[in-house]
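Cross-posted from the bioinformatics board.
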Amino acid sequence: MIQFKEVSKVFGTGKKEVRALDKVSFTVGSGEIFGLLGPNGAGKTTSLRLLSTLLKPTQGQITVAGLDTVKESQEVRNRIGFLSSDMNLTGSLSARELFRFFGDLNHIEEEEIANRSNRLIGQLKMGDFYERKVETYSTGMKQKALIGIALLHDPDIIIFDEPTNGLDIITGRVVLDILKDLKNRGKTLIVSTHIMSIAEKLCDRIGIIHKGTIRIIGTLEEIYEKTGEPDLEEAFFSVIGGVTEDEGYHHRSKKRA
Amino acid sequence: MKDIITVLKKELRNVLKDRRTLFMLFGVPVIMFLLIFNVMGEAMKSQEKKLEETVYKVYTNHAAFVENVFRDGMTKIELVDGTDSIENDLRDKRFDLAVVVEGQMDRLSDLFKDETEISIYSFSGSMASERIARVFSSSVNMIRDQQLRLFLTEAELDAGLLDKPVIKSINIATEKEQAGATFGGLLPYLLVIYLFTASFSVGFDVTAGEKERQTLTILLANRVSRSSIAWGKILYLMLMNILSAAISVVAFLFGFSSMIPQTGSMFTIFTPGSAALLFLIVISLAVLIAAFITVIGIFARSVKEASAYSLPIYVVTILFGVLGLQSELFQSQGVIRYIPLINGIFHHERFNHATATRLRDGSDHCGDQPGRSRSFGVSCRQDV
């Protein structure tokens, strides 16, 4: 379903060059939940932005359902739902109006947009705030609205970058329930997180990325076996070599959207 | 096309619910123009009244002559005694005018003596001084003409020779027509500036602003093409530009009419042809400016950065606006006419010409001097 082939991404040139990804390869099968774990600046967000066609790889190729993310970017975007922790919602429109807008952009019938919006509003427990201007929303409310936008066109592949980042425990649980529901419906999910419990509960397979390279990939059991550690957190530190300097931060703060 | 319209509709829905932005775009120009012209009108009226009621202070070494010049009493004067320095006292506004008569002048006929010389000192930094100097000069000239006429009559010569050739100065432009011509001259400046300023606030918000706030990513991660997003935003910007410029022009016309009530409604200056031409000018300028702003907004990473990039463009725009006011400068032919924005000025020129033709009812003469006349401080140019 999703395939990274020797993918590299370099930002800047000369002395300012930063290699965010270096020959990353992995696949995610249909109906699978794949977790991408890594510290800040490891290359998680870059990987997911490449997958969602927001960035182009410097080297290598990414395919989604056989479609090239560079050459067939529009078709790829048609099949994915993307949510990133650095996305934001502002403006005078309400969540319902935004659902209608993105529904129109995805050429969904008006009646169907209304049906899907109502279902998502209920599922996301949006209470009555969905009619209010999004600029008045809290972080959690915005995250729920963004999830709704990402799922409105019922994509087969869902890419969530740090979906519970900055959320309180209640909203975090709602998001987790949504992810479980998507899993049960046979959707393909690729989720980046640094919260080990989410990865443990949800993911079929996990890849740990550090300094732009995939260090280990496999099911939980395979990772425990390879690292000889009893849980994911210990396995994670074992793979990345303990507490290390956050080398990617400088680059992340400067890169363009 | 459907996606472009969807993006456009979303932006419109968003702005229509944003009362502050709407007020800044459409309310402020209306309030601003009405306020400016009303204040200007009141200031002009009070200035005229003040000048009429002013008692001008005059220093002279020949009080009898000066009093004779102002004997009609239409201009009130008060003679000031003594001065150490005419220049200093004029600057210090101790008096408004100084008249120094050299040579003996007991009678008006002494005006024609070789040794007679009248020096008129005024200070152009003072409106009162300028005005009284002008009045005094023309009054002296009138007295001289009367004396000449008297000499010729006494010498049994035809005094009527002084009136030859007969020169009739006929300004066929009514006050309303002159005001219309002024409006035509100001229009390019007004439109270019307003089309740009409306673009800045709205354009950078939906491009660089969305990038900065991380709201554009949601749209970019969707199936809609980049070109549809860009075109939707350009169309939205164009629409906002046109609406804002149209409201500004209407407010300008209302304000102008209220400043000079004798001109009546200024809206009658438009013929279907000139209105269509104006519409085409506005559309073409709006497309160009919206594209400019979108490109800058897409390139810039933040509104602050976009504003910094746009500053030189804004200065150039003001320059073009000012050049539009002086469209005689653009009489040259050639490639200059194909440069964007500059060619807009030529279109304005055509619009102005169409407006002026309508106003002048076929006349190509505008004033008592070739190409220029004055009325309530409004100039009427030959080319407009």
